[in-house]
Write a structure and sequence with these properties.
This protein has about 300 residues and is an alpha+beta fold. It folds into 3 domains: about 1-65; about 80-175; about 185-300, Distorted Sandwich (Glucose Permease (Domain IIA)), CATH 2.70.70.10. About 40% of the residues lie in helices and about 25% in strands. The longest helix is centred in the N-terminal third of the chain and has 71 residues, at about 30-100. The chain starts with a helix and ends in a 10-residue tail after the last strand.
Length: about 300
Amino acid sequence: MASYLSRRFTVVFVDRTTGVGRRFTVRLDWTLATMAFCFAVPVLVGLGIRWGTLAELGALRSSGVSLEMENTSYKAATGELATQIVSLQGVIDELATRGSLDPATAKAMKNLPAVVKAKAMGGDPSARPSDFMAKALASPEDTFDLLRGVLGRLESRLRTVRTDVERREALAAATPSIWPTIGWLSAGFGERADPFTGDPGYHAGLDISADKGHDVVAPAAGVVESAAWSGNYGNLLVIDHGFGIKTRYGHLAQFTVSPGQMVNRGALIGYVGATGRATGPHLHYEVLANGQLINPLSLVSVIR
């Protein structure tokens, strides 16, 4: 077989017009190899194109899967951000509703001693969101991560602010801002002459003259600390309002509450009397802040 393929053949081409001829001698194996090569090249080129196309399709499919995963991730991140934004809006609306106080209570709170107001303060004012441009945004993922971080810190800050508002509301409820009874002011706070001896003395509160048996109400929310006889005060009621604020009610004819009982602003706590060292029916009313007497007139601005 090998000897047959290596045989030589002579091909003669003759021009009929001129009679000139040309001879070509070829080997069979070379001829077959050339023909095979000529047929193989297009086939190989086609296979190469097909393989290249398949590779590109594979890359496109991989890229499509990757893009789908990124799209799913972005959708999840967007949903999370939307939830956080709705939550923030809810907190903001709540704070806007609760943040305002009636003018009388706001004025009374403003006149409280600084040490009392400090007890109602809370939170960390330094806990503010970081600068939005503090981080370079190299990709959309960085943007979402940064937005999530900023919104998360905003939520944390707003929770702190909400706690501060709740403390402020509690202090407002604990501030004695209304008159404990209806009557006329017969003695003020501070220096005055003793009503029995006429000697110079110091009056620790306000005397509000009223008819015997007239209602006495709590000027702020609190817990009844004591309700008992106390020497010159006669029947004395003491309410602890929290934040270091306490109020005293002397010369009562009768108590309507008992120690440990919680009362709200405006709740009936007793009746005007003249028990103890009193010249007539009236309510002796005192306000203490951290154990120090303060002038009740600096807080009272609303007549019940």
